[in-house]
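Structure in, sequence out. Go:
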């Protein structure tokens, strides 16, 4: 008889790398990323999908990885915050967060970065209203959001000018 604690072999494609893992079917993607793939940039906050700290991109769409089972990610491309920088060269959005003082404690930052990267990759010309709408799905207890908005606006401007 198969029980819920039986482990299953799953292959996760994360940041263009393959991770064969043996996990319980009930394990969340967030936990698998952190514990089985060693990618601790994805933070686990509320574990109810409310805060957005665990946001990753699955096939280019933002997903709360605390609400998705790792087994559901098999066959899909998962991108985490570790995928943004190119060696020592930060992604433009990461640099914009630094330049605009868009983080304080930093706990929510990986989720915000992945949420915004996903939105800007779909539409690099987001309006100010659309930026606020996108950001409203994630929670930050430190910054007051204004500098996060400024960081996104500065990257949006650069991406639009480069197009």
């Amino acid at each position: 008889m198969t029980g819920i604690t039986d482990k299953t072999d799953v292959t996760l494609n994360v940041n263009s790398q393959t991770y064969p893992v043996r996990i319980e079917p009930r394990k969340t993607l967030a936990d698998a990323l952190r514990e089985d793939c060693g990618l601790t940039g994805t933070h686990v906050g509320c574990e109810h999908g409310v805060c957005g700290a665990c946001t990753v991109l699955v096939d280019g769409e933002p997903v709360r990885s605390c609400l998705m089972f790792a087994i559901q990610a098999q066959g899909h491309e998962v991108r985490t915050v570790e995928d943004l920088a190119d060696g020592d060269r930060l992604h433009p959005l990461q640099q914009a967060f630094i330049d605009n003082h868009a983080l304080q404690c930093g706990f929510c930052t990986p989720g915000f970065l992945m949420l915004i990267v996903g939105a800007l990759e779909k539409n690099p010309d987001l309006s100010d209203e659309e930026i606020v709408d996108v950001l409203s799905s994630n929670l930050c207890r430190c910054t007051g959001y204004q500098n996060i908005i400024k960081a996104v606006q500065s990257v949006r401007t650069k991406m639009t000018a480069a197009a």
